[in-house]
């Protein structure tokens, strides 16, 4: 099966970036595309996601343009009630798989190589058997891996864990084989937030949860990130952000104005956030999170021992019946700045915050046209 391949484009990765980019290349040009991915099926990090994660934003804003994601329904129950549906990992992976097998491959212009490791310079090898290919790329290599982040499910935690300590990645909570006495959630990002919300929704008492947070974050209010019939609220929020930026005297003044308008949210109104990643939450999720009172702010966790958690600025008691939930992976990589468009190469990266698939689609259209 080894050999040489000739193709206009070589796309590395079948996550949201690679799929959205390739979708627009197909729709706006007659290019041929070779697609390589180390995973067994399209979907990128969603293939390794914790089972209770959902999109931060409505389904219609995500995925590829050639196949709709979701059915544009408004949820009637839960923490997303009154807003448009949020797809989970199974639905998202199915969406990308349908795009590959019902849109991409039937064009006759796409060759797809799953379970393959890209080595650079147009070369890749199978991860399953002894085969190697080389692609002679006529136009460009599309690298969607430059900002690949860490995933708790497949990466070791960034702290030491003693043999006697009970520590699991977020996804393993859904498959516990014994009941913990307490839950210690480690992390301050969206994974930790999702984990706490999921535990509370499942009936775990807020008093049974300890939340280790090295810092606080600003979150976007999902109410103002809605499509279709709720689009006027999105437009209002966008114009309000420009107005706040124009009138403010500092970054702190901008976020204070946006918080007053309900566009920016924070879990603890007494603690000043020091990070903003563009993640989106609902006010109902926020109300649940505020029930957790045992919040540890002693810096980053450095070690989990049998009877204590060691942090930058102190220690906290623990025990073997407490499950420590690892949510501390860095979601996005931060490599050196690199141009998106270069001769023979496109390094896919965001061009503004939010609406990831839309951004990657724009880049695909720019390249195609």
Descriptive key words:
alpha/beta, 8-stranded mixed beta sheet, 25% strand, globular
Plain-language structure description:
The protein has 369 residues and is α/β, with parallel strands linked by helices. The mean pLDDT is 95. The chain has helices spanning 16-28, 89-104, 190-201, 231-247, 251-260, 283-289, 356-368, and strands at 3-12, 33-36, 110-113, 116-120, 123-126, 132-143, 160-161, 166-169, 182-186, 209-212, 217-221, 264-265, 275-281, 295-296, 301-304, 308-311, 314-317, 322-326, 341-342, 345-347. 24% of the residues lie in helices and 25% in strands.
State the share of residues found in helices, binned by percent: 10-25%
Order of helices and strands: EHEHEEEEEEEHEEHHEEHEEEEEEEH
Classification by helices and strands = alpha/beta
Query: Tally of extended strands?
Result: 20
What's the gyration radius in Å? 22 Å
Task: Summarize the topology.
Layout: E1 3-12, H1 16-28, E2 33-36, H2 89-104, E3 110-113, E4 116-120, E5 123-126, E6 132-143, E7 160-161, E8 166-169, E9 182-186, H3 190-201, E10 209-212, E11 217-221, H4 231-247, H5 251-260, E12 264-265, E13 275-281, H6 283-289, E14 295-296, E15 301-304, E16 308-311, E17 314-317, E18 322-326, E19 341-342, E20 345-347, H7 356-368
Parallel strand pairs: 1-2, 1-6, 2-3, 6-20, 7-15, 8-18, 9-10, 9-18, 10-14, 11-13
Antiparallel strand pairs: 4-5, 5-6, 11-12, 15-16, 16-17, 19-20
Helix pairs in contact: 1-2, 1-7, 4-5
